[in-house]
Write a structure and sequence with these properties.
312 residues, alpha+beta, NADH Oxidase, 2 domains, four-stranded antiparallel sheet, two-stranded antiparallel ribbon
Length: 312
């Protein structure tokens, strides 16, 4: 006998067949899922990829917990997504593709009503600020190919975006690419450094290097940029150093290498070199940086955790 069903009685939902069920994620797919974000400090050093220096014992850092264990190079969590970059760790290269074409040309048309500016519009970049900060390293091996004027102008434009006291913008730039001038400047800087080196100074470790006639303090980069501070109501040296950091970060984003050269500053501030390079007597060279096409990206080195003396 057939059983009649009341219209108000809900019908049971049909069971899903095996064909209708979504496929389970494989172990490989599960590994690709981004992990929790961890800070660069807990990762034990520079972001992106962090290897211990050649003088340190290799360690391994967990991107999620920040704990380290001996036996493997330390890998810090990526500053942007908290993941470690295995490829960068294996090769010692930057985890972000950086090339001279990484920055696109600025947009041609500005929005209506936009304020006028004496500098270029902000260019689109394939390397964000955190990547550049964590991945930039002092480069001491160069191909010898000099950066083009266009590249250098873009670096100067990035440098002058730095803050300055009272908006004085005290910086100006001197570019030295003549090989003979660089050689004379390197030799003179080495002599000055040796003559002015205090007894017991930590720089005495480099005495033999400075005494070697073959030593080039500019590392064969082929281009030296001096950042010069003009006189004013507020000392401009610190502001010029801020511009120098912008310069180096922008160079990294464009695939170039840089290295600040402390040995060169005293020599550049001598009257003879000031006259030769067109630097006014009342101006002071605040920072000297070499820039060029690097042979390779140096492996990241460990950074100590930030030391906070007070927090009130």
């Amino acid at each position: 006998m057939k059983t009649t069903r009341n219209a108000s009685t809900p019908r049971p939902e049909p069971r899903a067949s095996a064909k209708d069920k979504p496929p389970a994620k494989s172990a490989t797919q599960a590994k690709k899922a981004p992990g929790p974000t961890s800070s660069a400090a807990s990762g034990g050093g520079a972001g992106g990829s962090a290897l211990s220096s050649k003088h340190d014992k290799p360690t391994s850092t967990s991107p999620s917990t920040g704990t380290t264990s001996p036996g493997k190079p330390a890998v810090a969590a990526h500053p942007a997504n908290g993941r470690a970059d295995d490829e960068a760790t294996a090769t010692g290269r930057s985890s972000v593709a950086a090339s001279p074409t990484a920055l696109k040309d600025p947009p041609k048309a500005a929005a209506k009503g936009a304020a006028k500016s004496t500098t270029h519009a902000v260019p689109a970049s394939g390397v964000d600020a955190l990547h550049a900060i964590y991945e930039r390293r002092a480069v001491r091996e160069y191909t010898g190919v000099k950066p083009s004027r266009d590249l250098l102008k873009r670096l100067f434009d990035a440098a002058v975006q730095a803050p300055s006291a009272m908006d004085l913008q005290p910086w100006s730039f001197v570019v030295v690419q003549d090989a003979a001038t660089l050689k004379r400047l390197s030799d003179h800087a080495k002599k000055l450094s040796l003559a002015r080196m205090p007894s017991g100074s930590g720089l005495s470790l480099y005495r033999r290097e400075l005494e070697d006639p073959k030593t080039d303090i500019f590392h064969g980069a082929g281009t030296l940029v001096a950042i010069v501070a003009k006189p004013g109501p507020w000392p401009g040296v610190e502001d010029c150093c801020l511009a120098g950091q912008n310069f180096m970060l922008a160079a990294h984003a464009l695939g170039l290498g840089t290295c600040p050269i402390g040995y060169a500053r005293d020599a550049l501030n001598e009257p003879s070199f000031k006259r030769e390079l067109g630097i006014p007597n009342d101006h002071a060279v605040a920072m000297a940086i070499v820039v060029g096409h690097k042979k390779d990206q140096p492996s990241p080195t460990m950074r100590h955790e930030a030391r906070v003396l007070a927090w009130s």
